[in-house]
Amino acid sequence: MANATAAPDRSLAGQLSRPASLALALPLVLLLGFAFVVPVVKLLAGSVFAPDATAEHWLRIVREPIFLRILARTVRTAAIVTVLALLLGYPVALVMSRQGGRTAMLIAACVLIPLWTSVLVRSYAWIVLLQRTGIVNSTLLSWGVIDQPLRLIYTEGAVIVAMTHVLLPYMILPIFSSLRSIPPELDRAARNLGAGPWTSFRMVTLPLSLPGVYAGAIMVFILSLGFYVTPALVGGPQNLTIATLIGQQTTDLLNWPFAGALAGLLLAVTLGLVAIFRRILSFGRAT
Amino acid sequence: MSEPSTIGRAIRTAPPPATSPRGEAITLRGVSKLFGPIVGVDHVDLQVEAGEFLSLLGPSGSGKTTLLMMLAGFETPSSGTISLGGRDLTRVPPNKRGVGMVFQRYALFPHMSVAQNVAFPLKMRGMSRAESELLVEQSLARVRLEGYGGRMPAQLSGGQQQRVAVARALVFQPPVLLMDEPLGALDKKLREELQIEIKTLHASLGITIIYVTHDQEEALTMSDRIAVMDKGRIQQLGSPIELYHEPETGFVADFIGKMNFISGTITRLNDGRVEIDVSGQRVSVERSQLGGRHEFARGQAVRVAARPESIALAQTSDDAIRVEVETSIFLGSHRTLVARTPDGTQLQVQLPFVRQTVANELRGTAFIRLEPGALRVFGAEG
């Protein structure tokens, strides 16, 4: 809007000379280089040079259908989790952005406290809830809704529910921040000009909050694709995702070259899907 | 306003008067708004005539914006009723009121083009694109923005954005236009230009305009009548001339225009007139010059309000107020003296500009005299 027009750059970065700002970025660049780029390159290189150049590990992924099936399941799970998180998260973000003071703080706390809690703890909490003698089963049994404990844990459903819960804040926060940046008088203007509450939401609030929706959806989707802890704990052996598969290869089977090939595949699929996503979104924004 | 003729042209191409909007009267009866224990608007009664330009003027927190929000339907009165042209609006949702509104920060939809913005209220009324196209063009022409329909709001200057907002608010031909400090975000020159444009639009459309502002000059320039608000109440309702020359309370006197307050004591009261000793000058004023709400008695301390232009320099010391001149400011058409009375009250005196006037060299002690007929008298605390 109007305040997006170029203001004189008074930020700290604007006052620094170019070498000085590069120097500030150096520690992070070094850390990322040593802790991220080098291991990834080594792992990927390991999948094709073991020690001589070979395509054996990559061909194995294609030859044995199980691996592509796991990949497809991972993508599907990530997509379901993203949609669920969006459906659950958008209303929360909307209520949060419309409330003032204490109510907004309370909702923000409910969203943020899980984020500060370890993923491990939250995943174990789902085990407590969903296991054979867990809270859900014992409640249903005591109400007489069921005779036999349901098989809840170690299913794909459990993975989806737990992952949605764990990743929900990553959906809510970007949507909230884009909703918060919409001036409240826009909704009032729409109402004044003849739009009912729902029409005003559909024609003004929703389109203007889409950047937050896109950001949240991409974040949740990417995180879901590579999610390890939760599927490993609540998913069990029949519900391998690509990340748990990689974990199996490195820790149990010590097949590092094959793990490297799987990791390379995951990386390529993630980048590819994000690129497609961005393409669609920039197209949507241009019209 | 370099080409006022474009406005004339736009009006000539506008649809015939039968379809042009006509103003409707607004009646507020005993309207109050409470925010918890805080009183936002306190028992306001107001009758706005059809086609009138009425300003709600007051400092921030005076309740003027809350009153406007209740007229638009964004707030519900805690008590009282609002009606428009005989139709009760008190509980009608904002989208069913059919009143136009212009917001301080334009409130254009940033994801829609100018034409889409202006067409929005028509679309909400179920009008097809083909039908609305002509109306949108005419509405944009009315605010001198022909051919801007394809642009996005962010590509326009602040003044242009606000003109689009006016076009959008008028395109569905509402009988009433509410304006919430519409020029507050613009610089002075642009503000003055748009003031004239809004006045011109008002004159040509004949709609009722309720205009909220905290800028008294703007209110004086534009309004048929002004309601001065403070602490949730209408302190005084009247024409700009009435408010300027006959303020009923000290607040209104102080808020509208420049006003000096000088302390005085009532020395004599009789049927028609009151005599006051104003720091040395004895003035005799009519009872009608006394501010409305106070009973006055002999010996009572009062505040005498005098406009800078109703004070003159006196040649002699008797029957005059002694002041120390602090500065003398040249302002082209006139000269303003800043002076201080012996009790420390600062005064502004506006002297007509005369070449070689003594005021050029005026420093130190001087004597001034108030013009009795132009004074207003208020109680010491009101």
Describe the structure.
The complex is a heterodimer of chains A (287) and B (382). Chain A has 287 residues and is mainly α. Chain A has helices spanning 12-15, 18-48, 56-63, 65-98, 101-116, 119-130, 135-143, 156-180, 184-192, 197-225, 229-235, 242-252, 256-286. Mean pLDDT of chain A is 85; it is low at 1-8. Chain B is of the alpha+beta class and 382 residues long. Chain B folds into 2 domains: 5-99 and 174-250, Rossmann fold; 258-379, OB fold (Dihydrolipoamide Acetyltransferase, E2P), CATH 2.40.50. Helices cover 24% and strands 33% of the residues of chain B. A 6-stranded mixed beta sheet of chain B has the order 6-7-8-3-9-10, sandwiched between helices. In chain B, helix 3 crosses helix 4 (129-142), helix 3 packs parallel to helix 5 and helix 4 crosses helix 5. The interface between A and B is medium-sized, with 21 and 30 residues.
What is shown here, in short?
The complex is a heterodimer of chains A (287) and B (382). Chain A is an all-alpha fold and 287 residues long. Chain A has 13 helices and no strands.
Write the layout of secondary structure elements.
The complex is a heterodimer of chains A (287) and B (382).
Chain A lengths: L11 H4 L2 H31 L7 H8 L1 H34 L2 H16 L2 H12 L4 H9 L12 H25 L3 H9 L4 H29 L3 H7 L6 H11 L3 H31 L1
Chain B lengths: L4 H9 L12 E10 L2 E11 L4 E5 L6 H9 L6 E6 L2 E2 L11 E3 L11 H11 L4 H14 L15 H13 L5 E5 L7 H18 L2 E6 L2 H7 L2 E6 L2 E6 L1 H6 L4 H6 L4 E10 L3 E6 L2 E6 L14 E6 L4 E3 L7 E10 L3 E7 L5 E7 L11 E7 L5 E4 L3
Parallel strand pairs in B: 3-8, 3-9, 6-7, 7-8
Antiparallel strand pairs in B: 1-2, 1-4, 4-5, 9-10, 11-12, 11-14, 12-13, 14-20, 15-19, 16-17, 16-19, 17-18
Give me some keywords for this one.
heterodimer; A: 287 residues; mainly alpha; MetI-like fold; 79% helix; B: alpha+beta; Rossmann fold; OB fold (Dihydrolipoamide Acetyltransferase, E2P); 2 domains; six-stranded mixed beta sheet; five-stranded antiparallel beta sheet; 24% helix
